[in-house]
Each structure stands twice: as C-alpha cells, then as structure tokens.
Amino acid sequence: MIAILGLVIGVVLGLAFTPDVPLALEPYLPIAVVAALDAVFGAFRAFLDGIFDDKVFVVSFVSNVLVAALVVFLGDKLGVGAQLSTGVVVVLGIRIFSNVAAIRRHLFHA
Amino acid sequence: MSDPEVPEAPEAAETADSGPSGLDRLRRSLLSPSRGQAVVAVLVGLLAFAGVTQARLAGQDDAYAGLREAELIQALNGLQAASRKAERDIAELEQTRDELRSSSQRRTTALDQAKQEVATLAVLAGTVPATGPGVTATVKDPDGGLTLNHLLDGIEELRNAGAEAIEINDRVRVVAQTSFEDDPNGIVVDGVLLKAPYVIDAIGAPDTLAGALSFEGGFVDDVESDGGSVSTEQKDRVEVSVTRSPPQPRYAEPVPGQ
Q1: Phi, psi of A98, deg, nearest 5
Q2: Distance of alpha carbon B121 from alpha carbon B135, whole angstroms
C-alpha cells in the first residue's frame, strides 16, 4: 500500500516540479531508470516468492543504478557509449521480462 | 549488475512457492504497512520521479540534447548529406525551370511571328479587310472608249508600285488570282460585272502609287487619250473592306518541313 503511494507521489512530484537534469547526468538517466525498474520488478518477484528483504532491495536498487551508470560512463570514455548503453538496456529488458513472467505465474498461476 | 533477489531462472519460481502463496502475501501486505514497505515506497517514488523526468526529457522537441558526440557527428553528417542532396535538387529544378521558361519564350516568339505572318498573308490573299494610307483613283469613261486593257494597266502599275491591297468599286478585291474579262456592259472582275466609273482603292505609299498612275505616257495619259478621265486622290486612310475566301489549292501542296 505504501509502495503504491510512493509510486503515485513520485509521479506527481516529477510532473509538478519538472526538474532540469544536469547536462552531465543526462546520458545516464534513462539507463538508471531502466536499471531501477529491473530492481523493482526483481523485488516484487522476490516478495511474491516470500524471500523479500528490504535491505537487499535497497542495496540492489542503488547498486543496479550505479553499475548501470558506471557501465555507460565507461562506454562513453571508451568511445562505445551508444553501443554499450544499448547492450545494458537489452540485458535489463530481458531480466525485466523474465521477472514479469515469474510475477505473472504467481498472480495468475499461468 | 547484481541480480537483486532471485538467482534462479523464472521457471524455478513455482517450486519456491512453499509457504503461503504470493497472492496471500500480497493481500496481507496491502493491509498491514511495515518499515520495509516505507523503504520500498521511497525507492519506488524515486524511480517514478526519475522515470517521469526522463519521459519528459525524451519527449522534448530538442532531439539532439541527449545525444553523444559520435551520434551528433553522425547526425551532422546525415544533415549535411541531406542538404547537399537538397541543393542538387534545387539546382536541377532551377535548370528545368529555366529550360521551360526559355522554351516557352521561344514558343511565344514563334507564335507571334506566325500570327504576324498570318496577318500579312491574309492581307495579301484578301481574306481580311485592310486599311491604311493609299490612293483612290476614279476612272470615268463617258464615251465608252476604255477597254479592259486600260484598267489592267492601271492595276499593274499600282501593283508594281507596291500596292498591298486593291479593290474596285468597293465590290471586288484584287489579289493574285483575280480574273479580268471583257464584257459589252463593262468589265467582269472575278465574275462580278463592274461598270464605269471605276473607283480603284489601293493601299500603299500614296506618293508612289499616285506617281505610278500619272507618269508621262502611263495609265492616266492612256485613259485620257481614249476619251476617259482619271482623278487620283491621295489619302491618309483608305478602307479596303471587300474580302474574298482563299481558293483551296487542288494540285499544289506545301513542301513539308518548310
């Protein structure tokens, strides 16, 4: 319940403040969002599995975001930023899909 | 990247479902808030905030703001190629336009020339009325001593002097094909019987035409020696209003390509 409230509040805040993202962080924001999405779906699946732990969730969320940003940063430095961020998005997308599949099995038994 | 909570493949999820089912847990957690849920709420809110911001950024018109250097160079190259192509297109289209313009101008010129030629030929062929400076020669024949030859002489003199349109008695237009015949009552020109006095309207240079009729031993002298009289009047404006339809050539054909 509180989690859903947090989601709603986040959306409302984002719409209300329309913050300007610093130029230096602009390339990392989309990757960070996708990584965080992956962490959230993973957490939801773990919750349905009964093995959810909030400390693990916090750590995985933060580390997911940081690692994704780091990979993109390294890619930019190495001159393969575009390709690497595409790769990160693909990998995270696959994980999100598999997590969503597990969640679906839990909720709908199908 | 760390695999947050579940190391196994998704298929293993069903076997891990030993205690209360996931749905039960979900229902329970919706009713009973806990510390963990608050933490989750904060992080999920953060995610939503960032997601909305990113969606807003991605939806902005400025398509190049978030691009990397290499992508910008690529985009720039693409734009340059597109602009080169557009410039080539512009040059080609301008060339086409110029060609069309000059060809249409040529056509207009040719059309004007043709129209002018038609007008000239129409006057010569007598198919249109004509007007202009010229002379009116009135030939009187009180004694009936004049013959067709007198009149023919007069017409020939006028022609030689450059008369462009000639008519007689406002009834007959004299052109290249005009026929003259003698008749007891007068003369027959193009099948039309004409009687004296004969009024010859001729368009041309008035001085030249008048001179061509009145030189010594010429038309006027001839007529007067046979009992007739000629009065020549130079005019600024002579109306030749009689027209004739052009004969359709039966044997002659235009040479193609001329």
Answers
A1: -65, -35
A2: 21
CA angle centred on B50, ends B49 and B56, rounded to 5°: 95
- Across the interface, do B54 and A33 touch by the CB < 8 Å criterion? yes
Virtual torsion, Cα B107, B112, B113, B118, nearest 10 deg: 120
Cα-based angle B157, B160, B163 (whole degrees, multiple of 5): 90
Instruction: Give the distance from residue A79's alpha carbon to the nearest chain B alpha carbon, in angstroms.
Output: 8
Distance CA B71, CA A76 (A): 11
Q: Record the tokens describing residue B112, joined without a space.
A: 């004007």
Contact A6 B40 (CB under 8 A): yes
Q: What is the per-residue pLDDT across A53-96, written as a single tens digit (0 to 9) for each?
A: 888 888 988 998 899 888 888 888 888 877 888 888 899 999 99
ipTM: 0.78
Cβ–Cβ below 8 Å for B50 and A36: yes
Beta partners for B231?
A: B138
Mutation target to probe the B interface, by most B beta carbons within 10 A, among A9, A33, A60 is: A33
Burial of residue B224 (CB within 10 Å: 0-12, 13-18, 19+) is exposed
Most distant pair of Cα atoms in chain B: their distance? 151
Question: Using one digit for the tens of pLDDT, what is the confidence trace for B101-126?
Answer: 999 999 999 999 999 999 888 888 88
Of A3, A9, A71, the CB nearest to B37: A3
